[in-house]
Amino acid sequence: MVSEETHKKKQDWALWTILAIAVLLRFLFLAIKPPHFDEGINGWFVDQLIAHGFYKYDPTNYHGPFHFYVMYVFKLLMGRNLWALRISASLFGVAAVYLMILLRPYIGRFTANSAALFMAVSPGMVFYSRYAIHESELLFFSLLALLGFLRNQTKNDRTSLWQIALGCTGMILTKETFIVHIGTFFIAWGCLKIYERFSPSTDMTHKPQPSYHVHDIWIVTFVSAFLIVIFYTGFFRNPQGVNDLFHSFMPWYKTGAKGNGHDKPLWYWVTLFTRYEWMALVGLLYLPRFLFKSSRWLRLISIYGFGCFLAYSIINYKTPWCIIEIIWPFLILAASLLSDFARHTKRALHIALVAVITFSMLSTARSIELNFFKYADATEPYVYVQTYPDIMNILAKLDAVVTKSPKHRDSRIVLLLDSDWPLPWLLGDYTKAEYYGTKLPNNADGILILVDGNRRLLFEQKITKEYFAQPFMLRNSKGECYAYFDTEVFKDFFDEKTMRVKPQAQIKPKPGQGLVASYYSTADWSGAVVATKTVGNIDFSWSNNQRTMPAPFGIIFTGEIFIPKNLSVEFFLTSDDGSDLWIDDVNVISNLGAHPTKTVSKTVFLKQGWRKLQLRYNDYGGEMMGQLRWRNSSDQEEIVPVSSFRIKSVTK
């Protein structure tokens, strides 16, 4: 027979092997993927914590303070980098695997080890343990509370009190969804007690007498309450914080019910199980087995797991990282299935071990594919609101410039993006990074400018320097954007083939050239003309504080356009708000309506000579811009030049 000491060593080898796999998958190339949208926000919160000396809890933010203080420690130790941002989540992810192994006295060694291995290699567990978000901490504290509860039921000692208290306290400090898990667990415990009256569990035992005293309960309660108070009040700098904790549930409930853009169907989690979490799917399918004679603690875990699965399915607001809070009970149930099979014969044990290793290898292969190759692939459901590598390539050039010439850390960087996270964190060490959202500053120049593609033309009218221009994608939920690099500063990073953008020369029309612009005080061009002026062409942009007239108003540009020969001409009409183009009384392009910058194009065949032209524009408020471009016989897309227009009396 194998001695008990040798048996323990084998178990230790299993423990260390599983933990080594968990560490490898969670820490290897941790900085390989760009920071996620939420990671940027969380990193920025840490910056605010450093700036103000404490984290001011906001009940509408749906995140407790603990995660930010842990990140703060690593920020102080390691500086601003992706390792410092993510290392705490990875550590808690590994620690959660360790807690799963510690469940061996309650669910069996084979089940606990197998479930821990499934957790160590799970695509979701790995993917979201490599994110600087709260889920790893919530997972860890949930398992700690469960471990304490099971120990309390079987040993009822002082250690179990601390495990329960610290587990529940950590959940409260981490995320408002703690109420789902704690509430579901108590419901599951009540359901189990009732069900056992009709179908007793196979290993029911009486809870032993406590081996601790009343003062131990008071100490544990005081420490838990103290931790909640100091973290939520920002170490007593924000006394309102504790009260705000209780105010967080109503906005959280409203957001969860509405979905707020993250609404998913009821069966969303099943689709993720099917695509990634195969062992969790096995556990879900095996769940009805626990209606029959089975272990008490496996029954409890099955009821709790189903309750959480149901709760998260009913909530409309679903983000895929919540998967790691949902799947772990089902990983235990899947491991239990293999454990039940292994008990029959020695051969069955060997088959079960092969099955555990095979399924783990398949999950490992999927984890490696997802975490090291497809981490920014928008076709993967786990890759959600993920930043693309493009932005890191842009910032690598900026960092190289600053390394060579540190003065540029104080140079102006301009962001004209309607959604710019995680850039405020990525650019946190640059002193003059300016964020304008959908506004357009009068002075748009800087060493680096990032612009939404639909406002590119509007921006280019503002520049006074020459730039290299490079398209990029920030993430799949945004359209194409453009990065502009000062040619003098970044000349070593681009060649002659790179697209360059130069300041647009303002050409004054010669006598007879251009168009007549008639201004109306209405958006539908009704009523009397209130002003007229001559313009060279259709190429203008004004910010809200530069408007020529109060909104709403309209302009009609009239004149003639010269077509050099019989040919097909492609016109591009861009405007904010509406516009339309008429040539020889035919409506060529309609781009009407109150909308942000939008381009509509159309190709028409026109005969040589001067053709009658009318272009109508209207504005309903906010920024204003209009631009008419063409691609003619030279196949070059360009703004229709002043020389191609002439003023002529044209009737409407």
Indicate the radius of gyration in whole angstroms.
32 Å
Tell me how many strands there are.
18
Q: What is the mean pLDDT?
A: 89
Distance between the terminal alpha carbons, to the nearest Å? 104 Å
Largest sheet: 7 strands, antiparallel
Broad shape: elongated
Number of domains: 3
Structural class: alpha+beta
Helix content: 40-55%
Low-confidence stretches: none
User: Helix tally?
Assistant: 21
| Beta-strand proportion | 15-25%
Describe this structure in words.
The longest helix has 27 residues, at 346-372. This protein has helices at residues 4-27, 37-52, 66-78, 82-101, 104-107, 109-121, 123-129, 135-154, 158-174, 178-195, 214-232, 240-247, 249-258, 268-275, 278-286, 296-314, 323-342, 346-372, 390-404, 423-426, 456-460; strands at residues 413-416, 433-435, 448-452, 467-472, 481-486, 500-501, 515-520, 529-535, 539-542, 553-563, 567-576, 578-583, 586-591, 598-606, 609-619, 624-631, 637-639, 645-646. By secondary structure, the chain is of the alpha+beta class. It is built from 21 helices and 18 strands. The strands form 3 sheets. Strands 7, 8, 10, 12, 13, 15 and 18 form a 7-stranded antiparallel β-sheet that branches. α20 (423-426) links the parallel β1 (413-416) and β2. It has 3 domains: 35-142 and 237-372, no CATH class; 390-496; 515-646, Jelly Rolls.
